[in-house]
Amino acid sequence: MTILNEQNFEAKLQDRVNKKLNSLISSSNQINESIIYALSNPGKRVRPTLIYLVGDALNIAMESLDALAVATEVVHTYSLVHDDLPCMDDDDLRRGKPTLHKKYSESTAVLAGDAMQSMAIQVILEDKNIPDDIKVQMTKFLMETIGHEGMIQGQALDIQFEEQEVSKDQIIHMNHLKTGLLLEFCILAPAQMADKRNEHWENIANSVGVSFQLIDDLLDLEESEENLGKATNKDLGKNKKSAPLVIGTSETLIEIKKYEAITMESIMKLGLNNHPISNYLKDLFSRRK
After folding, report:
1. What pLDDT score was predicted for residue 41?
2. For residues 228 and 219, is the Cβ–Cβ distance under 8 A?
């Protein structure tokens, strides 16, 4: 029996990832301590969970997915650390705790984020459960995802859009780059490892990736700081161009429903209606409900 066949599999997957994250650093100095602080901040580990779920659906052993799961969570955490900086979104709270630059310093946060990028690459390349050719493929895929034409470009657009009027298509494109691509990686990387990447996985990846940020933007407007564990209404206060602020809540919900329909239709076509990934994706789309 795998973890995915057990009750509370999400908590068990989170525990698996957390244990591996905790084993990444052994020596103690300020940078290492700050990285540990960032990685130990409580989170739902959505990205590693997606990797394990897709991998299970494609009969990939969990041991062959661990490095990708850990690397993506490290990358995601680095992106949050840099995103929170005063020169970016200037946030004081993340997952209910002081952001890293508030806990330590801005310079420490910059360096810790830089270190986590290289750490993610190292985690994949040092893994003994992945063939060397697959390591190269996965590392290249991940670096393209988070690089100058991917996640970084999305963050640059997020800042640029503060000073201009934007369209719905521009907002969707920004969300795709800034948030969607890393989530897409978590769905498509296992499919690519298994040589099963196809239009259905592509549709799921794109729809989950873009809608995730749309839902986050709605939550930013509607939820309390206590419930989210971070400041709310920050998009409105900082002239951020989120979908609800540009096209309205109703239109944003229509977009989310469209992406949910595409996702669940593709799950059905893959024959995965009874696999845990089906309910997990439904839950992701229901975060705002």
Report:
1. 81
2. yes
